[in-house]
Design brief:
It is a single chain. The chain is mainly alpha-helical. The protein has a domain of 107 residues: Arc Repressor Mutant, subunit A. It has 6 helices and 2 strands. A two-stranded antiparallel sheet has the order 1-2. A hairpin with a 5-residue loop joins strand 1 and strand 2. The longest helix has 17 residues. The chain is elongated and about 60 Å long. The relative contact order is 0.14.
């Protein structure tokens, strides 16, 4: 199981936007460069983030993209779900009773717990902290990606 490249790009873009001063706007081109996302792919990611009301698209000569709300109120879960939809590790965890075995299957509780833990970790990872950590790593010349065990989660 692996997230799509679009979800990874969306997280990168959102961390980049979260690292900007409040009210600042970034062009599509500057976001592509700063987040190391191919420009031709970025349009789809930005559309999904806009539809999910995580970012705002500003038109005109002073246009660009900005966060729709404070970065402390946006989690990695919000970003991932804006691209991937709701997290569902197995069909038996869906709302539509797609699996008739869910009530007596011994694996169901393991799937449910794993999904809850994954969702909890992503929900607790707020963009303001991720952006601050990324800035600190750049100052120190440390490599990315950010390792979850090094971040103080809220």
């Amino acid at each position: 199981m692996q997230l799509t490249r679009a979800a990874d790009y969306a997280v990168r873009v959102m961390i980049t936007l979260a690292g900007m001063p409040p009210g600042a706007r970034a062009s599509r081109e500057s976001l592509a460069g700063a987040a190391e996302v191919p420009s031709q792919f970025l349009g789809k990611v930005l559309q999904a983030l806009t539809r999910s009301q995580l970012i705002v698209s500003h038109r005109g000569s002073r246009g660009g993209f900005s966060l729709a709300r404070p970065s402390s109120n946006i989690s990695m879960l919000d970003v991932v779900q804006s691209i991937e939809g709701p997290i569902q590790l197995n069909v038996c965890l869906g709302q539509d009773d797609a699996c008739g075995r869910r009530w007596f299957c011994s694996a169901h509780e393991v799937w449910r717990t794993a999904q809850a833990v994954l969702s909890g970790v992503l929900q607790s990872a707020k963009l303001d902290r991720l952006a601050a950590d990324a800035l600190q790593r750049r100052r120190l010349g440390e490599p990315c990606p950010i390792r979850a065990e090094e971040i103080a989660w809220s």
